[in-house]
């Protein structure tokens, strides 16, 4: 598994993780549970560690906690978010997330920048007390990039989570360079954009040059494009399908595209 360095600490982090939106929003007796267990097993077996969740994702935090109880040897990097207004409300939500996910969290992020000034003090206090190792902020749409840029400059964040994909490259203009400048690790959400591009591409054969990138699936190829950017620390596609998880994990192995190969990716967005 490709490793990337967290600038604020020097810790190495596997470059492929998993997001839990929608797919992990199930109860402990749901028929999907076995598949989700296999998704996490595939992630860990390939050297991945990052699992990202949020109170916004329904039962996802709880499901992560339940599944990890069945995997005592796993050493996940657990990330979730605070998504509420108010200091007292935020503290209560963070305590609940901590309990649901097994009593240990690596990264707490302010979800979609909601009341971030209020939550920053709590996050910094938890980090100082050793209850968290890292703090961060998130958003998922280019329309929020101006505000996200401002918040990135306003405090010493360890992580920023943002949208970046072959069909959504707005972050290349300011946010990715700013993250590198300020030493902020980058987690990429929505790595397949709105999903339209990969749905279209899956109807077509892989180009011959995909082999040069070490890819045998469209999912891996599109993720390799993202990981080729040096400011990207980790990408967190969401899936509840073990087969899809294995396709995703392929992107974390082998060489990354060089400049010449990256030029070929532009042709994939042609309608």
Keywords:
271 residues; globular; two-stranded antiparallel ribbon; eight-stranded parallel sheet
Q: What is the compact description of this entry?
A:
The protein has 271 residues and is α/β, with parallel strands linked by helices. It contains 10 helices and 10 strands.
Commentary on this structure:
The protein is built from 10 helices and 10 strands. The chain is α/β, with parallel strands linked by helices. It has an 8-stranded parallel β-sheet. A two-stranded antiparallel ribbon has the order 1-2. Helix 5 packs parallel to helix 6 (175-182). The longest helix has 14 residues, at 87-100. 42% of the residues are buried.
